[in-house]
Amino acid sequence: MPEGPEIRQAADEIAKALVDRPVTEIFFAFDRLKSFEDILTGEKVTAVKTRGKAMVICFTIPLYIYSHNQLYGRWYVRNLQSYPTTNRQLRLAIHNSKKSALLYSASDIQVLDEHELATHPFLSRVELDVLDQAVTVEQIVDRFLDKRFHRRQLTSLLLDQHFLGGLGNYLRSEILFVAKVHPSLRPLDCDTGQIHALAQAVLSVTHQSYLTKGITNDLQIVAQLKEQKYKRSDYRHYVFGREGKPCFLCGTAIVKEIYAGRRLYFCPRCQAL
Known about the structure:
The protein has two domains: about 5-125, Alpha-Beta Barrel (N-terminal domain of MutM-like DNA repair proteins), CATH 3.20.190; about 135-265, Orthogonal Bundle (Helicase, Ruva Protein, domain 3), CATH 1.10.8. Strand 2 (about 45-50) and strand 3 (about 55-60) form a beta hairpin. The strands form three sheets. It has a four-stranded antiparallel beta sheet. Helices cover about 30% and strands about 20% of the residues. Helix 1 runs parallel beside helix 7, helix 4 crosses helix 7 (about 190-210) and helix 6 crosses helix 7 (about 190-210). The chain is of the alpha+beta class. The radius of gyration is 20 Å and the shape is globular.
């Protein structure tokens, strides 16, 4: 599933292609949305925003296309009417005079008015988006200490979009590693230093992933491994997907376990209890 950084990267690309240009044609795959094709044709896209793992495309009239990629959705931005070779099913296409933004495989697509946007069950649930430039370390510390969350295991908490929007499975492993916190702990079990380390890692790891298109490892380590001709999959992450391989910091074999039904990776030495 794409996580917050990937959705924000897609939004940036879509915005570059669509914003301030009139829509010349729009296609919805779902019958319930067909009536909006004529309504939105001719309107300009004014902004492309993200909220957690969701995207909202804004128009000059007060209507908004909401989409959530879920597990399999994928956006493509192509030259006008140029379609990728893929077995995926086209769900949404937005065309202007030069570009086409194409969403494949996603099923969670809606057209919302202003009231529906403000009360949307997913969007309204995301109280704090970690890619929002205004979010601070102190705000995230407060979330970890909030009585609604502080007794929950970190492994499930870091996947909860109500807790922090935009995090997901690979970010969960990487944040815990950077903070040097064992995955079995709860915020309640952590001392003040660990809580602040977690809050700082939430922001630093997520923002680095956004800026580097998914790289969460130390960038000096990455540069060294690139020079040695390692593949991207070998240097992209500190721990995620690296079961049995040596930790970049201490050399201990990375462990894989299942937490909250999802695979998680950690270093038993760097993240010792």
